[in-house]
What does this fold into?
Amino acid sequence: MKELIIGITSSRDGFTEKQKEAFLSLLSQYEVVEVHHGDCVGVDEGIHQTLLDGKKETPKIIRIHIHPPTDLKQRAFCQKKYETKDVLVHSYAKEEYLKRNQAIVMATNELWAFPSGPEKQRSGTWATIRFARKTGKPVKLFWPDGRVE
It folds into this structure.
């Protein structure tokens, strides 16, 4: 059974329709998917909702792991908003953003990043991408125009 364990890092702007299509296309190559996200508004919430919207043929098994932030201002509270019986959802203890993002990288096999634009120094998304690369984890970048690198 082809399995994938991915971490998500993203902008709070939400994802474009092209990013969503690219995400679903790559995801469909796997039978079992475990997704770790940071429970923030924007892409985290969009991916959580997308995974629960109408059960897909593939992946057959979906597990979602939520790594919530201590700062509640940008939190999406996905577990409460999108309850389901078909998908296992596990939530970790709250952590500050940097530690939480690093925990997501360390708990997964690769990082799927949804940046809103080019690399910036003061960006949690880009800091997470740099950390994943430093640890040797593969990183896929999903650009707003749908390109995946």
In short: The first helix runs from residue 17 to 27.
